[in-house]
Fold this sequence. Notes:
Layout: H1 3-7, H2 11-71, H3 82-98, H4 103-131, H5 137-156, H6 162-184, H7 187-195
Amino acid sequence: MPKVEIIKRPIEQVGSNIKKSAWSAVIESLVLIILGILFIVLQDAMVKALAYLVGALFIVKGGFQIINYYMEKGQKDFLNNGLLSGVVSVLIGIAALLVGEDIANVFRVIIGIIIIYESLVRINTATKLASAGINVWKYILIIALIMLVLGIFVTFNSGAVVVLVGWMMILTGIIGIVGDVMFIQHVNQVVNKLTGK
């Protein structure tokens, strides 16, 4: 990612793009919390129906992210993971629609992969913040690593019941929001670093 492409942009546009990415991450964490609550309340009887709904939503969301990534030239935007996020969302959506009767166990793996992906995005963010000399990177990295551990637990623990997966999703969403809010509070500092102010 050439630094000159970022510096040429108006400060307002840089700040707007970063805030949009950060708030998008907050919304994704909120969705994870809501899904976690549904898992706990509905449990096995409704997991299949929920999976079809979520599958369709992921495909729509992923398609929108992919289109938006290219329309806004996201490859030049700091923290824009729209293409990767979009492809992963579409694949998860297709998987959720195809697995049918085995949805409960497969859905656990899908949720685990989502959590791992979200943690990797935040690790990437922490790395970029560290290279820019912004101290909050340490806290975001710690939060990301906790999310990574939770994601690995959910993905590879075949004995995890639906209720446990639901609680893991809620915990991951809360941790993610904390990290995203911390980042949003330092957006101005990030913009100043990127624009050389």
